[in-house]
Structure formats: structure tokens, C-alpha cells
Write a structure and sequence with these properties.
about 240 residues; alpha+beta; Fumarylacetoacetate hydrolase, domain 2; five-stranded mixed beta sheet; 4 helices
Length: about 240
């Protein structure tokens, strides 16, 4: 039995206008969250050791490909989370549908308390917001490393930049797909969506009332953006 989840997305190609692109119901079967995807392996190893000192277990491999319920994917403008210890992180998103790969942006929103004793479990705890617009891979492949990622947080009405950098900080998209296929023995197929890794948080990882993120393409002067509010739910035991 295969679990299916449908999102209404706008799949756009160069020369088109995202605002005029019609929505398409895309059927998704798997959510893959790629972790520890940094290109600078020395810096990544240093960060792994820092997290080990905080009680976060070393990943079984780098990169590592976590799975979470595909039903966690959402384009909503608000999510609910248990307690106040969760936070977002911007990631580029790779979607395969109709035999083609599309590029978007999402947030691997994660419960940080659960992460200290079970990273895989923490990935399942929270919804994963994604922007509804996706670009054709062929339109960005030639200048992939120039794509810029940025996120901001809003807490008590104060907005501040939270993450900033380019996708060049992470392993190339094609390499991640190849590594996933080699490690799992499964092809990256129609219905798959992969989140490709994130950037360091400026000022440290912390919760917020609202999380905003964008993927900017300087070559074509366009961007994909999304934002969502986080509603904490009480933890009663």
C-alpha cells in the first residue's frame, strides 16, 4: 500500500509568470529529508562534535536521508506544534513529478527537544511547510550555485534575518539524488519530494512566532517565498 498526499502547486518554466501559472494537483508519495549535506566536511564534522556535547547523537552517515510522513507537507500559512521548542529552517526542495525535476523551497520545521534523543522521531513531529511555486530544474541547473536562500523570524513583533547564504553551501542537487539512490537502492521517482539541507542559524537555533523564507534566483531576477505562523499547543504530560 502506498500513501498518497496531494498538494496544489504551481509548476513554472522560464518565460512564464508565476502569478499567472495555474495550480496543478501534484500527488506525493515520499518525503525525504536530507541531513548533513554540507560541502565543507571539516566544518560539518566540527558541528557534529558540538552537537554530540549537547546530547544529539552522531548521524549514522553523512549525508543521511531521513524519512517523514508525506502528509506532513503543507502549503498552509500556519502550523501547530507541541510546546515552544520547535523551529524552522530553510531548505531547497527537489520535486519529481511528470518525469521531471522541479525546484522549490521549504522549511524542515523540527522539535528541538525531541531532536536531542531521536533525530528521526523529531523529523516526524512537525509539519513541513513548502512554498507553492516550483521552478523547472532545467531553468536553474546552469547557475545552480548562485541560488540564494534566506529566512527570517518574527518574535513579539520583531523581525530579524535568521539564515542567509547560497545553495553552494550544500552538496549539489544532482549529487544528493545520486547518493540517495545509491544508499537506499531506490530511484528518485515521481511523487518524491526531497528537502536538501540547511544553513547555520545566525545567533543560534531558536523558536519564533513566525517563520519566513525565500529562494532567490539572481540570474532570472525572481524568487519563491513563503511564510507561516507557529501556534504552540500545551504540553500536559
Amino acid at each position: 500500500m502506498t500513501t498518497e498526499h496531494t498538494l496544489s502547486l504551481r509548476l513554472t518554466e522560464a518565460g512564464g509568470d508565476e502569478r499567472d501559472a495555474g495550480s496543478t494537483d501534484v500527488t506525493l508519495n515520499r518525503l525525504i529529508i536530507a541531513g548533513w549535506t554540507g560541502r565543507d566536511t571539516d566544518a560539518m564534522e566540527k558541528h557534529i562534535k558540538e552537537l554530540e556535547e549537547l546530547g544529539v547523537a552522531r548521524p549514522a552517515s553523512t549525508p543521511i536521508f531521513y524519512r517523514a510522513s508525506v502528509n506532513r507537507l503543507t502549503t498552509a500559512s500556519a502550523i501547530q506544534a507541541s510546546g515552544t521548542a520547535s523551529s524552522g529552517e530553510i531548505e531547497f526542495a527537489l520535486l519529481r513529478t511528470g518525469g521531471r525535476i522541479w525546484v522549490g523551497a521549504g522549511s524542515d520545521h523540527t522539535d528541538r527537544e525531541v531532536e536531542t534523543y531521536g533525530v528521526t522521531v523529531s523529523k516526524q513531529m512537525c509539519d513541513k511547510p513548502v512554498a507553492s511555486v516550483f521552478w523547472a530544474w532545467d531553468d536553474v541547473a546552469g547557475h545552480w550555485d548562485d541560488l540564494a536562500l534566506e529566512s527570517s523570524i518574527v518574535t513579539a513583533g520583531k523581525r530579524e534575518v535568521y539564515q542567509q547564504g547560497t545553495v553552494a553551501a550544500m552538496r549539489p542537487a544532482t549529487e544528493l539524488i545520486e547518493m540517495f539512490e545509491k544508499e537506499t537502492g531506490s530511484s528518485f521517482q515521481d511523487g518524491d519530494l526531497m528537502l536538501g539541507g540547511t544553513l547555520a542559524a545566525m545567533g543560534g537555533i531558536r523558536p519564533a512566532d513566525r517563520f519566513e523564507f525565500r529562494l532567490h534566483d539572481p540570474e532570472r531576477n525572481r524568487e519563491i517565498a513563503h511564510a507561516y505562523d507557529i501556534e504552540p499547543m500545551p504540553v500536559l504530560g
